[in-house]
Amino acid sequence: MMFILSGYGFKTLKVSVPDQLKMKEPTLVSFPQDETSLPGYEIRPPYIGSQFIGFKEALAFKESQGNYFVTNTYGYLGKYQFGLGTLALVGIYDGNHFLSNPELQERAFYVNISRNKWILRKDIKRFVGMKMRGIEITESGILAAAHLAGPGNVKIFLRSQGRMDIKDGYGTSISNYMKKFSGYDISIVSPKRNPRI
Questions:
Q1: Secondary structure of residue 160 in the 3-state scheme
Q2: Is-contact 47 57, C-beta < 8 A?
Q3: Which domain of life is it from (predicted)?
């Protein structure tokens, strides 16, 4: 069996699968619809480090299981599940083009994180290292929560000492993202005021 890997700027590579790795019969693999469908079970992304790449891939896995071409039931688009309003803030106005362009999605994610980092820069300085509702506040947790609920809602959460915990349409809360995505080093992202693509 021969596979050809190409696209997105990668060279074409022919890979042969050794006989000992070949499947003898089909294997059924299924995934739960969400993390709550099996008690005590959570789908976790592969760990690729605690730097920015690990942060963005873990967040993408939570948002869409890393699928660039998916639209959820609320109309959020792509690997990082962007809304059209947020895309317009960074200079993207064509949702169809965005959905079909993985490179643009990666650029939009970086630009939006740097935008949120600018908006939340004072809150990051003030609250990182504190504990709220048993959760240690970190920069990466703050920025992940801003991706989920917007930077304004994260300000409300932080300034209310965690009492105002906003949830998205699927019931995921700011505190959940604060905890789930804490401890990543995303210092590579510089805060930028009104960045555009």
A1: coil
A2: no
A3: Bacteria
Helix (H) or strand (E) holding 2: strand 2-7
Give the separation between CA 185 and CA 45, rounded to whole angstroms. Answer: 17
Residue 37 confidence (pLDDT): 47
Three-state SS for 31?
coil
Model confidence at 15, in pLDDT bands (50, 70, 90)? low
DSSP 52: H
User: Which whole number is the average pLDDT over 109-133?
Assistant: 97
**DSSP helix/strand/coil, 121:** helix
3-state secondary structure of 5: strand
Interval 41-96: pLDDT, tens: 555 555 678 899 999 999 999 999 999 999 999 999 999 999 999 999 999 999 99
Tokens of 178: 């604060």
What gap in Å lies between CA 54 and CA 67, rounded to an integer? 16
